[in-house]
Amino acid sequence: MATVLVTGATGFVGGRLAPVLIEAGHAVRAMTRHPEGYDGPGEAVRGDVHDPGSLAEALEGVDVAVYLVHSLDDDDFERKDADAARGFGLAAAACGVRQIVYLGGLGAEDGDLSPHLRSRRECEHLLGEAGVPVTAMRAAVVVGHGGISWELTRQLVKNLPAMVVPKWAETPTQPIGIDDAIAYLAAVVDEPEALGRTFEIGGADVVTYLEMMQQASEEMHGRRIPVRTVPVLTPRLSSRWIALVTDVDTTTAANLIESMSTEVVVTDHAIDRVVPRDVLTYREAVRRALAEADA
C-alpha cells in the first residue's frame, strides 16, 4: 500500500476520497492550509499549492499525490492554477513522488475549449513537466451533495417556477455521480497500468444541460419545470442571473457557464479495461445527492 497525499482534502471530492483510500489500506495525508482545524480522516499536514515553500514537508515520503485544487472563484484563475500546478509538479519530483493523480475536464483535444477547460488541460501537462507520471482523470459535471455544479442545478430548479435558458443548455454532456468519480480516482492510485495515462470517466447516459434540469425537477418536484430556450444569453449575463437566484458567486458561475457550450462526453473507454465498473445514470446520481442532503 502507498502513502497518499490528498490536496483539497476538505473539499467536495477530497473529503470523500480520503476515507475510501484509507479503507483500501493506504496511509493518507490530508493537505490543508489549516491543519489545526482539520477533523477528517487521515493525518493533517499543512500545505498550500500557491505557496511552493510549504509543499516539501507535506510531500516528504509520499508515494502518490492526488491533485484536486482549482481557483474558479478568481478572475485570474488560469494563471494561478498554472503556477500552482507547475510548482506542485516540481516539488513532487524533488520529493520522489512516483505518481500524481489529477481530476481534470472532458473535451476534445482539437476542440474549442473554454478558458476553464483549457486551464484544466494545461494543468495536466504542467503537473508532469518535472517528470512525475500523471494519471489524468477527465470528467464532466460531478453530481453530488455539496458540489458546485450540482448546487447550481439544484438551486435553479428549487428557486425558479420557470426558466429561460440560452442555446448552450442543449449541449450534450455526460455527468458522473460523485460515488463513481471517487471509485475511479481511488482505483488508479498506485496502479501501475494507470501511470502516465489519461482516462475519460462519465456516468451511464449522455444528456443535455436542459435534460439535467428537467430530470432534477422531476426528482425534486414530481414534474418538469417549464423552460424556454432563447438564442442569445451571454455567459456573463447568465452568471449574473444565476447569482440572483443561487448562492454560487458570479465569477465561479461565469467560468462554469463558459464551458457549457463545449460538448463533454466520453469518447475513449480505456478506463473500462483498467477499472471495470457499472456506473450510475444521471437520475440515480441525483437521487443520491438529494437523499444525502436530507440525511
* CATH class assignment of the domain at 3-142 and 174-202 and 265-278: Alpha Beta
**CATH overall fold name of the domain at 3-142 and 174-202 and 265-278:** Rossmann fold
Distance between the termini: 33 Å
Which series of helices and strands comes N to C?
Answer: EHEEHEHEHEEHEEEHEEHEHHHH
- Given the structure, what is the number of helices? 11
Radius of gyration: 19 Å
CATH H-level superfamily of the domain at 3-142 and 174-202 and 265-278: NAD(P)-binding Rossmann-like Domain
The number of distinct β-strands equals 13
| Major β-sheet annotation | 7 strands, parallel
Structural class: alpha/beta
Folded structure, characterized:
With 295 residues, this protein is an alpha/beta fold. The protein has a domain at 3-142 and 174-202 and 265-278: Rossmann fold (3-Layer(aba) Sandwich), CATH 3.40.50.720. It contains eleven helices and 13 strands. The chain has helices spanning 14-23, 55-59, 77-94, 115-127, 148-159, 178-188, 209-221, 235-245, 250-259, 271-274, 282-294; strands at 3-6, 27-32, 43-46, 64-67, 99-105, 134-139, 142-143, 163-166, 172-173, 176-177, 198-200, 207-208, 227-230. Strands 3-2-1-4-5-6-11 form a seven-stranded parallel β-sheet, sandwiched between helices. Strands 7-10 form a two-stranded parallel ribbon. A two-stranded parallel sheet has the order 8-13. The longest helix has 18 residues, at 77-94. The model has no long low-confidence stretch (mean pLDDT 90).
